[in-house]
Design goal:
Length: 308
């Protein structure tokens, strides 16, 4: 969420709510996001939101286009796919058109569309976004940290796998079902990661950054028990600990630490200068592991929600 909270009315402003965008509308939104990214130094909409934007109609996903005349000034996305949690949203206003109440207008539209049950991301936790959340009556309830560390020198211990565990790389089409099952079990209580479907996996495998050689699977007695999926952000020259997951009954034996080290060595071998990852601030065990591996907080994303 990057925007403004000023209530001023913009003549000719309209908000169009759509279940699917045309290719032209998608490109207009991508152009707006690129402008906001350059101005803010970070992505205003998450990777998942961009996938929803670019890969066609998805059940439970709505797009909000704020226009003045025929020009796109703002964009919001509402995801209502969780059977328990309130719908989640992201919103952004073009940096050239902030300070005119567009963020508040989008936020009000999201509140109305969600029946005033809403969660909203504020990427980077900037002061304007925090103020907008306050104006909309939202309260802070989740903090997601982005951690980073240099990859050179990679001063971490050699990975030591638990007895009987072997590691290989992911084979698209062969490992999909088993990986989805392990991911769901490992992240059963995670609000986003644990609900990934085959289509979500397919969308990611269709992305230019996907490389199965950086997707490591841990097996024991022929059973998949954990994984470390890495990602390379080529433009930013960043390697990412994209997601590390371990089956509940395989946790506690050092497998997560070993898989993380294997992935970091893979990223370092590609001469990337820096590694990053995301972790919830209240996941103290994971934060401790990553800090011991040399990671430190780089920036923070905040999520706000309605009280009801």
């Amino acid at each position: 969420m990057t925007s403004d909270a000023a209530p001023a009315l913009e003549p000719g402003r309209q908000i169009h709510t759509l279940d699917e965008l045309s290719p032209e509308q998608v490109q207009d939104v991508l152009d707006l996001l690129a402008a906001a990214d350059r101005a803010d130094g970070m992505h205003a909409v998450s990777e998942q939101g961009r996938l929803y934007l670019r890969h066609g109609r998805r059940e439970g996903i709505r797009h909000f286009l704020l226009t003045v005349g025929h020009q796109l000034y703002g964009y919001a996305q509402l995801e209502d796919t969780d059977p328990v949690e309130a719908p989640a949203a992201e919103l952004v206003v073009h940096p050239s058109h902030r300070g005119r109440g567009h963020g508040r207008a989008l936020g009000s539209a999201l509140l109305a569309a969600s029946g005033k049950r809403l969660r909203v991301w504020a990427h980077g936790g900037k002061s304007a976004a925090r103020h907008l959340a306050q104006v909309l009556g939202l309260t802070l309830f989740r903090e997601l940290r982005q951690l980073r560390r240099p990859l050179a020198p990679l001063d971490i211990p050699e990975p030591v796998l638990p007895e009987g565990v072997t590691v290989r790389t992911f084979v698209p089409g062969q490992d999909d079902t088993a990986w989805l099952a392990v991911n769901a079990a490992a992240f059963a209580h995670h609000p986003e990661q644990g609900s990934l479907t085959q289509r979500d996996l397919d969308d990611r495998m269709a992305e230019p950054w996907f490389d199965p050689k950086g997707f490591f699977l841990a097996e024991k007695e022929g059973r998949l028990i954990g994984f470390h999926w890495t990602k390379v952000h080529a433009e930013e020259q960043l390697g990412e600990v994209y997601v590390v997951g371990i089956l509940p009954d395989a946790q506690g034996g050092g497998l997560g630490k070993a898989l993380t080290a294997i992935g970091l060595r893979h990223l370092a071998a590609q001469t990337l200068p820096t590694a990053m990852l995301y972790v919830d601030a209240d996941n103290t065990a994971a934060v401790t592991v990553y800090e011991r591996l040399g990671f430190a907080t780089h920036e923070v994303d905040l999520m706000y929600r309605t009280e009801s």
